[in-house]
Amino acid sequence: MIAAIFYARVMRIPLVVSYHTHLPPYGKTYMPFLPRVEEFGWFLVRSVHTHADLTLVTSPQMQEDLIANGVKRVEVWRKGIDSVRFNPEFKTKEMREKMTDGNPDDFTMVYVGRLGAEKRLKDIKPVLEKMGPNTRLCIVGGGPQAEELHEHFKGTNTVFTGQLSGDELSSAFASADTFIMPSDSETLGFVVLESMASGVPVVGAAAGGIKNLIHDGEDGFLVQPGDTDVYVEKLNILRDSKLRDTMGKTARAEAEKWSWEAATSILRNEQYEKAIVNFHSRAFNGFGKPGTQPMLRLLMWKIKRILYKLGLASKPSSSEPELQSS
Q: Which fold has domain 2-79+261-285?
């Protein structure tokens, strides 16, 4: 990031920065022992993004959050999804067997993504336990909390597949009954979109960028973070296979609206143009701000020198340039 800022300023070209990892709440999760760690996180975010001519975030919620905390020139990056790679057609009996430890008829929840404390995956255990013995959980992915989570879910109907990719990953999405997303720190939540594109309804936290993806009660459900009873209530509703199928089709139709081509077109034709406009606006609006008065005085002295040589003004004071170092 520092290299990008340096290069943009040296070459005098507009700089567009994208914001994907919500650092301030991560600080609270990983360094709760540090006083005012979230405030320091916002200081770092502002310090970096003040150099950007345009900051792109992945949801209106993130845009509001950054603006409220002093970040300027923030736009929403239109979401995009590969609806060919993530598709209901990848559903298979073999993957279903793997995800349920040989119990394919049980109601099956899946989580796909990073295994880290900020994802609040431990919140799923009491949900799973209240759902009863005919419910299964499959966790796909890896991360720093993997070993801890294996121990935490020990004795429950949980399968850890580790990292998957390609057709196996697509199949894991499509072969579940529902996707569960307890994280409240997502800037967007691409895995939510990928599940929707796979025709699988999501029950997710009503927080961060996830709120911008799910239409509650239509293509999935939104639940307040950590509300075990409401998670159980919404998941039990999805035991109805006909309702689940209807919501899955609605989710798929919603995901199909967000192609990579459309997202890239808006980025290239609209948002890059805004960055260029901001770049030129900032270049001319710098005068008058703290620390720029000496530069302005020097410029005015040079203009007076030119006018003097043309016989259009009196000779400027020889001490005037010294003001630039004041």
A: Rossmann fold (3.40.50)
